Amino acid sequence: MAGRLAGKIAVVAGAGQTPGETVGNGRSIALLFAREGAAVLCADRDEARAAETAALIVGEGGSAVALQADISKPAGAAALTAAALQRWERLDILVNNVGIGGGGDGPAHALEEAAFDRILAVNLKGMWLTIKAALPVMRKQGGGAIVNISSLAGIAGGHQMAYEISKAGVNRMTASVAQANASKGVRCNAVAPGLMNTPMAVEGIAAATGQSVAEVRAARDKRVPLGGKMGSAWDTANAALFLASDESRFITGIVLPVDGGLSSRIA
Asked: Which segments in the chain show pLDDT lower than 50?
């Protein structure tokens, strides 16, 4: 089914990616949305990474522009909606893919205060700020779709307390935004990826732990019930596409696990 987002204007926050052998969630979402007919604003804190994603889309014949913005700051978050309005005069879809971890995160007894503040400021407060900026436009239009990229860590874990709390907060914020804006035709849902073969996850863990990329991949694959293999960023992107499209017009306030059955396994 082609053209599932034909005529739509989409903003993807975190459309760049960490360098690595595979594609990341933000880039795959931006590419897939453009292939399905959306004009895409590719936003990222790293200007070069945003520009690279936009160039890939344009190279495939799609419509995209890049924007450098730090969504952890109110002005940066508001710039995403402002840029979409300036170029296209509307905003139909907002995807919140920005997320960070590490750098002092850990279990409660080891978590550093600076890491807690930094991770919550980006992963939770930053997402609220982008949503806050987009909602007046979507409410006035009488519709819109917000897709938040959460994580299985929002319901499981024990070794990254700040990251886990931030994603649990994203899940609750998703439901709150959905309920507060349903009467205005604005939907808000989340995707919760599990173990995915993305540069930020695999190469990031390898660098932090001193393991090889192959070792990290093998260990993560073994933990996945469905086929014994991690998902890819395209699995995240396909879920986001469904939730952003009119096919999910009667769905709001959900957190969709994309995890190969990991969240449903008891033991």
From this structure: 1
Q: Which residue has the tokens 């024990």?
A: 158
Tokens standing for residue 189:
């849902």
**The pairing of beta strand 93-96 with beta strand 63-68:** unpaired
Cβ atoms of 62 and 34 within 8 Å: the answer is yes
Q: Write the secondary structure of 97-144 as one string of H (helix), E (strand) and C (coil).
A: CCCCCCCCCCCCCCCCHHHHHHHHHHHHHHHHHHHHHHHHHHHHHCCE
- CATH number for the domain that contains residue 78: 3.40.50.720
pLDDT of residue 18: 87
Query: Quick one: 95 exposed, middle or buried, by C-beta within 10 A (0-12, 13-18, 19+)?
Result: buried
Predicted pLDDT at 50: 98
| 218 is a domain residue | no
Token match 């540069």: residue?
Answer: 199
- Helix 161-181 × helix 113-120 angle, to 10°: 30
Is the pTM for the entire model greater than 0.90? yes
CA dist., res. 19 & res. 23, Å (int): 9
Q: Which amino acid is at 210?
A: G
135 in Cβ contact with 96 (< 8 Å): no
Distance CA 43, CA 20 (A): 19
Domain limits for position 176: 9-194+232-258
What is the distance, to the nearest Å, from the Cα of residue 73 to the centroid of all Cα atoms in its chain?
Answer: 18
> Catalytic residues, which ones?
163
Q: Is residue 214 domain-resident?
A: no
